[in-house]
Amino acid sequence: MRKIKFVNDEYYHIYNRGVDKRTIFQDMNDLDRFFLSMNEFNVVDPIGSIYENFLLKERRKKEKFGNLVPKLPKLVEFVCYNLLPNHYHFVLKQLVEKGIQKFMHKLDLGYTNYFNKKYKRSGSLFQGVFKAIHINFNEYLLHLSAYVNLNHRVHNLEKFGGSVTELFKSSWNEYLGLNNENFCQKDVILNQFDTIKSYKKFAEESLGRIKERKEIEKLLLDD
Fold first, then answer.
1. How far is CA 168 from CA 4, 10, 21, 26, 104, in A?
2. Whole-Å CA distances, 11 to 36, 65, 97, 134
3. Helix extents (H) in the chain
4. Which among 13, 102, 198, 217 is placed 20 to 30 Å from 108, CA to CA?
5. Count of CB atoms within 10 A of residue 9's CB?
6. Cα–Cα dist 156/216, whole Å
7. Which domain holds residue 204?
8. What strand order describes the sheet that includes 131-135?
């Protein structure tokens, strides 16, 4: 039985990896599908097929009042995320009762079904139930945002070159304003800094200390 108790409006570090440390994102289409799932499954009510919902949204774009469709209530709020070839990290705030459990169940099941069908396999894709840590003070939240946003640098993905460097997706560029995504609720982090540049400096300095203490990653992923 999971020992941690999820409480509304509290923050949690959520992470997991592929069973037997296997790759869970084998190409950019897999990454895009998982990221789409992070958005589509983050609703209180069932959504049915992601593919059918995609077609519906495309049709609504062509209709005069398509953009006026109200947004459904969310289960969780994303603060930051990082998707890497064989594992992922989220910082989430729970918005409704059992919101994290419900969201993660739908995300795990939905993506596993997609992955197994695409690669003609069966069985579990992820290593058991997702791991969760309560973020119980602000300084922890700040440093964890750096750890998650820059987790691809923790693993030195850039040094491999080629397609490996493309097989991750992070909220880092969103935090720096380098893309048009508005997926994460960044204010809880960025409002504590004078400028985005000052957060960037803080995060990269925090990353330097993290890379000096490899024990952190071992404790997180070998738990």
1. 28, 27, 16, 10, 19
2. 22, 36, 14, 6
3. 28-40, 50-61, 99-119, 138-149, 151-154, 172-175, 187-190, 196-212, 215-221
4. 217
5. 8
6. 15
7. 11-221
8. 131-135, 11-17, 87-94, 76-84, 169-170
Poorest-confidence range of 28-32, 74-78, 157-161, 178-182?
Answer: 157-161
Nearest to 167 by CA among 154, 158, 175, 176: 158
- Residue 123 to residue 116: CA distance in whole angstroms: 8
Half-sphere exposure of 70 (CA within 13 A, CB side): 3
Rounded to whole angstroms, the Cα distance separating 45 from 48 reads 9
| Residue in the block written with tokens 């809880």 | 188
The reported pLDDT for the residue numbered 167 is: 85
CATH number of the domain where residue 149 is located: 3.30.70.1290
Residue that wins the pLDDT comparison between 59 and 186: 186
Answer whether residue 4 is part of any domain.
Answer: no
**Is 3 contained in some domain?**
no
- pLDDT tens-digit readout, 25-38: 999 999 999 999 99
User: Is residue 198 included in any domain, yes or no?
Assistant: yes
Burial of 86 from C-beta contacts in 10 A (0-12 / 13-18 / 19+)? middle
